[in-house]
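Would you be willing to look carefully at the protein I have copied below?

:::
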Amino acid sequence: MTIYQNLIAGEWIGSDATKNINPSDTNEVVGLYADGSAEDTKNAIAAAKSAFPAWSRSGIWERHVILKKAGDEIMARKDELGALLAREEGKTLPEAIGETIRASQIFEFFAGEALRLAGETIPSVRPNIGVEITRDPLGVIGIITPWNFPIAIPAWKIAPALCYGNTIVFKPAELVPACSWAIVDILHRAGLPKGVLNLVMGKGSVVGQAMLDSPDVAGITFTGSTGTGKRVAAASLEHNRKFQLEMGGKNPMVVLDDADLNVAVEAAANSGFFSTGQRCTASSRLIVTEGIHDKFVAALTAKLETLVVDNAMKSGTHIGPVVDEKQLKTDTDYIEIGKKEGAKLAFGGELLKRDTPGFYLQPTLFTEATNQMRISREEIFGPVVSVIRVKDYEEALATANDTPFGLSSGIATTSLKHATHFKRNAEAGMVMVNLPTAGVDFHVPFGGRKGSSYGPREQGKYAAEFYTSVKTSYTLA
C-alpha cells in the first residue's frame, strides 16, 4: 500500500508507517500513514520558523485565495472525504459528510476574514500624537487535534492560523490521520509556500513532546484529554508561550416538568448517543424533575430501541462503532462501575456483533443515578448516559452546575422564565434551550469554563484573540 507521508518544508517525506484501521470493519486497513520522529518535528518547526517572516507579511488576497480554494475543494469532495472520515473514525456516513461540509464552511469563513483584517486609529490624550492598534501574527503555531472530529477540528485551527499570518506544525491524532493528510494535501496544492504548513503524523509522546519542548513554537492550540492538556499548559509556561486548551466536559441537560416531551427526548438522544457519544459537548447527565421523570425515561427508552447500531457506511445506521478497542474497554468499564455504584441499567450496555467485525456497543442508559457517582462526574466519552432525578428547577440548576467541567449545558422547557434564568446562571461556555448540547455554528465562539477550557475561544472572529498579538503604535504628527 501507498504510504501517506509527512509534509515538511514543502516536501513529502517519511518511510516508517502505521496502519489506520476501520473501527466498523477491523479487517480493513484504511491506509498506511507516516510515523514521524522527534527529528522530523524539529525540522518542521525550523521550516515553519523560516517561512514565518514572508508569510506573516503576505497579502490578504493571497491568503484569501488559498483558503477559498481549500474550502471549495473540500466541498466538491464532500462525499469522498465524508466516506474517508466514516471509515477511519466510525461516525455514520451522513454525520461524516456533514462534518466535511462544516470544514469547508470554516475555510470559506476565514477566507472572508482574511479580507476583513482591521485595526483602530484613535487620538492620544496627548496633543499631535496618533495611536494605531493592530494585530500581528503570533509566529509558529503548534496544532494538536483529537480523533473525534478528524476534519472539522483541524479545519477550525488551521484556517484561522493561516488567515492571520501564522505558520504551522500540525500533529493530528494517531487514530485518524487520513482526513488530516487530505486537508494538508489540499492546502499544499492550493498554493501555500513551502514551510507555511507542516504535517507531522506520529505518537503524541514523540511528536507532541518535541513540539512542547521547542522554544521556537510561539503558541499551541490543543484539543484532547484533561491530563494531556495539563501537560501542554505546564510545558508552555516554561517557554512563556501562548496556549489554548479544549479538554472535555460532563455536560448536563435539564428536563423540566413543563418540557415538550418529544423535544426533550430528541434533544437528549441526539446529545447523548449520536456520534457514538464521542463528543466533548455530549450530554451524559440528564437531570430530570420528578413530575416528568417516568414519562421521559419511558419515551427515551422507546427511542433508543429504534436506533440502529451498525457499520458506519451502511445506510440506515444511526450509531456507528466506538473508535477503537481501548475506548470500548473504557466504556464497558464505566458501565460496570455504574452498576456497582447502584445506578439502574435501564437500557443497553451490551457488546454487539454485526456482519463486519467492529467495536459495537449498545447505547447505554442508567437511571436512579446520583450526581456523586463516578458515571455522573467523570467523562466517559462514549454512548453512556445517566438520568438524575431532582425535585424542581432550583435543584436541577444546582446539580447541573455541580461539576468540574463547564463546556455545554442544556435545558428543555416551555417556560421563558426558566429558560432565561438558566441561560444567565448555567456555569458553561455554551447554553442550549430545547436543543441538543452538541452542535455549534462555525461562525460563533466555541469554548467552555472551569476544567473544560483555557484561553481564548475558538472559531468565528473570536479566533483572532489566540492567533494574533495586539500591538499599539504611536506617531508624532
Observations:
- The CA atoms of residues 395 and 414 lie 18 Å apart.
- The longest helix spans residues 93-114.
